[in-house]
Amino acid sequence: MKTFTITYHIKFTIDFAPHYVFNKHKELFNLKTERKIKQVMVGGSIGYVINGKFYSLTYLKKHLSKTNKL
Q1: What is the dihedral of CA 1, 7, 70, 13, to 10 degrees?
Q2: Residues with Cβ < 8 Å from 3, sequence gap 6 or more?
């Protein structure tokens, strides 16, 4: 069996859910489950389902914080 590893660089975290992070390619990941979260459309609003609740992109942009660079 052959395996490979993909490394993503975290750029933003969500302040109310710090285990959800965005990378530099604007993809959302859950660090607890190590899965990529799909973007969905609900009622004409584009966003993500975080902890079982839908949040629009405009709401999430207000709650992003940049990660510290090491």
Answers
A1: -120
A2: none
Q: Using CA atoms, how far apart are residues 64 and 3, in angstroms rounded to an integer?
A: 33
SS3 21: strand
Q: pLDDT digit string (tens) for 3-56?
A: 998 898 999 999 999 999 999 999 999 999 989 999 999 999 999 999 999 999
Q: Look-up: residue for tokens 């859950």?
A: 30
Largest distance between two CA atoms of the chain? 44
3-state secondary structure of 60: helix
Q: How far apart are CA 20 and CA 28, in angstroms?
A: 7
Q: pTM surpassing 0.70?
A: yes
Show the tokens assigned to 4.
């490979």
